[in-house]
Amino acid sequence: MTPFELSEPHTLAEAFRMLEGEGVRPFSGGTALMLMMKAGVLRPTRLVSLRKLNLSGIEAGPSGELRIGAMTTLSELERSALVGKAYPVLKKTLRTLSNVRVRNVATVGGALAHADPHMDLPPLLGALGGHVTIAGPAGERRLPVEALYAGYLENTLKRSELITALEVPALGRRRAAYLKCTTRSADDWPALGMAVVLDGDEARVFVAAATDRPTRLAAAEKILRGRISDPKAIQQAGEAAAEEAHIESDLHGSAAYKKQLIRVYLGRAIHEARDAVH
């Protein structure tokens, strides 16, 4: 690992100034960043730690939405009584996201900004209609979670911008499920991640890991509209989903294998969501 400078701002304004220039990277949990630095993939000259910024916390908004500070750790999110009661699908998903040692350190904002398509949270948050708040020298902006991603390990953040918060709409009467297929242990990187949220007779469907970014499956959603209990429609939606997404082969499986996973896991996720408790 090459030498680097470590800066620790106390305010966002300080952080924006410190993030200017080439070779500068923000540092939150560092679980992925440090591995990339050790492998020589990244050689930053300065890391800007976000740990002293007031960006953590979990609370319910006035309309029942979930508000999460970007520096909240994944373990804090997993253990939150509010999350467990109002968003059981999030709690269940977090329990097999990597391992407890990583979750104790990794932060919500860092995990989203990393833009690894194998991450479990982005497709689920996309299906739930989650938004991130992004702050930078030019001010704040708000984006749907799926709009954060441009490709494999590529996000859409501008220079000196930081994710400061995540907001997830109240689950209400919606039903949600997230399933992943791993080739080894349950907490391994998935070959496929499938998220389904049912709202009345409509479905919102996202896939990840098989694609280079969280991808909404609009053709499958159209087939399922008004027919989410129809086995034939579910089968047709699975076929449409396998064809509409650009599938990536990797160490976790070939494109043909992942297409078959999409066909199978879409149906499984729909059934699990339908059986979910309000």
Structure explained in plain terms:
- The chain has 278 residues and is an alpha+beta fold.
- The protein has 2 domains: 58-168, Uridine Diphospho-n-acetylenolpyruvylglucosamine Reductase, domain 3, CATH 3.30.465.10; 175-275, Enolase-like, domain 1 (2-Layer Sandwich), CATH 3.30.390.
- 34% of the residues lie in helices and 25% in strands.
- The protein has 11 helices and 14 strands.
- It has helices at 12-18, 31-38, 74-79, 81-86, 88-94, 100-103, 108-114, 121-128, 218-224, 231-244, 255-275; strands at residues 5-7, 24-27, 46-49, 58-60, 66-69, 131-136, 139-144, 149-151, 154-155, 162-168, 175-182, 190-199, 202-208, 215-216.
- The strands form 4 sheets. It has a 5-stranded antiparallel β-sheet with strand order 4-5-10-6-7. The protein has a 4-stranded antiparallel β-sheet with strand order 11-12-13-14, with helices on both faces. Strands 1-3-2 form a 3-stranded parallel β-sheet, with no helix packed on it.
- A hairpin with a 2-residue loop joins strand 12 and strand 13 (202-208).
- Helix 9 (218-224) runs antiparallel to helix 10 and helix 10 packs antiparallel against helix 11.
- 42% of the residues are buried.
